[in-house]
Amino acid sequence: MTASRLDLDSEQVGRDLVTLVLTVVELLRQLMERQAIRRVEQGDLSDEQADEIGTTLMLLDQRMTELCEQHGVRPEDLNLDLGPLGTLLPRN
């Protein structure tokens, strides 16, 4: 049996790790956004709380955009294909 050698491109590994981390953060951001919308629709939040959550989610979305640009990751790169299950993130 011959030993196979694994060639790792450290730059690509770093980019893949950043993409994975940003994917997890984006998934959490979308889940938080859906939860906030559900709570607003149910009337669980005061107007002040709804405004604060909206502002926070907007700032988080802007920061995600900045991080993607900073690391050369496109938003569509964050949507992992899970095969028969479809994609990780809903398509907009």
Order of helices and strands: HH
Helix proportion of residues, in percent?
55-70%
Strand content: under 5%
Overall mean pLDDT: 85
Strand-pairing-aware structural class: mainly alpha
Number of helices: 2
Please give the alpha-carbon distance between the first and last residues: 48 Å
Low-pLDDT residue spans = none
Largest sheet: none
Shape: elongated
Radius of gyration: 18 Å
The tally of strands reads: 0
Descriptive overview:
Helices cover 63% and strands 0% of the residues. It contains two helices and no strands. It has helices at residues 10-42, 47-71. Helix 1 runs antiparallel to helix 2 (47-71). The longest helix has 33 residues, at 10-42. The protein is elongated and about 60 Å long. It starts with 9 loop residues before the first helix and ends in a 21-residue tail after the last helix. This is Gas vesicle protein GvpK. It holds the Pfam family GvpK.
Brief summary of the model shown:
Keywords: Gas vesicle. Belongs to the gas vesicle GvpK family. The chain has two helices and no strands.
What key phrases describe this protein's structure?
92 residues, mainly alpha, 0% strand, 63% helix, single chain, elongated
